[in-house]
Amino acid sequence: MKKNFYSPRMYAIITVLWFAHSALASSNYLTPIPSTGLMPVPAGGDEPFFGTYSPDSKFYATAFFDTSGSPAVFSVNSTTGALTPITQTNPITPQETYGAVFSPFINGAYYVATSNFDPTVSVFSVNQDTGILTEVTGSPFTNPGASESYYSITYAPNGKWLAIPNSGGSSITTFEINQSTGVLFNGTATPVTGLSANGPGAVAYSPDGRFMAIASYVDNNVLVCSVDQTTGVPSSTPVWTVPSAQHTWFIAYSPDGKWCAASSEEGSSNNLYLYSVDATSGQLTSVTANPYTLIGADSGSVAFSPDSTHLAVAGLAYPGYVFVFSISGSGAAGTLTQVAGSPFGTVDNETYSVSFSSNNPCSSNNLWLAAVNEGSNSISTFKVAYTPPSSCSNSYSNNLFAADLQAKYGPILAAQ
User: Fold this and answer.
1) What is the CATH number of the domain that holds 247?
2) Could you tell me the residue range of the domain that residue 93 belongs to?
3) Pairing of strands 248-253, 259-264
4) What local confidence, expressed as pLDDT, does residue 98 receive?
5) Omega within 30 of 0 (cis) for the link into 32
């Protein structure tokens, strides 16, 4: 990954443009929490990269590119969305980390995994009452396909598999997961045809777990592989390949499975692509309006709102911001339109990742968005102007997403 540096004059120009834009903005789609929107990371944390909410929005975790013993965990105030750092009392193996992700199940214990700078993966159980981390037996686990760093990590929606793009090579590593202990096993590195050396930037499982999208950082495209439904391993030959931006390194599916978005960094002027998804074949179709250009050229991670109607994108350029787009149309006619007030300032620089607090479209009106700011070792948090779809029952809660997964995959897990 290449850091971005701007001259003082360029910084001043972008800053002036940003504050002029902010003065005209009147939208409250994102409202900072608190008024400054910034939460410093715990003492000792340095260079936070990626953050993630637990499936019920009770906790938030972030990884650090340093040796402080990442990840850090915060409690989330269910009324205000404010983050409070949780002091960890158990020893944690110090690692330089990039990615952090919660398992999608509430199954007696949470598990959060981090992708480390060395070829290992760390897994922690998370006490659901206190947020205290305990490294599981055998952690950190050796990644059989990595010799260098990798930037992201993701659980499959069924909670059975974990996938990591090996950015130092041309393969994707997958692990199977013991649901009772969080222990990883059967690590497999799969070389993927069409991925150059140092190619994979990020991966994402489709919501139904049948396909895996791979952002190719070197080859400037997105590959889609079928997924073995027993092991979670992607096919070595992609079933689809579509062009994308230069240095594509983030990718995500919408919760409803109808859209896929990819973003890029390092000076690419056309740095955001939207694709429609064929639910049967997994084929991605680049929308006619592609590519989209963001202010400052560089972008970080992408995240869809739980109802799949909005897309948030982290802005890496100074002074740092979050873009929000509404999504309209269908198929190749799908379009992205920035909401009023976008981009929203994080009052910082190098905003690497964004995440919504829930994937459940029927979550309550209390929906939050967090943005990780590597430049100032902080997290910006926002209240999202969100109303659940009218089809949702009032009895639904943030636990529904995990409950639905448990109902769908529970028999499989029980039989393992």
Assistant:
1) 2.130.10.10
2) 8-414
3) antiparallel
4) 75
5) no
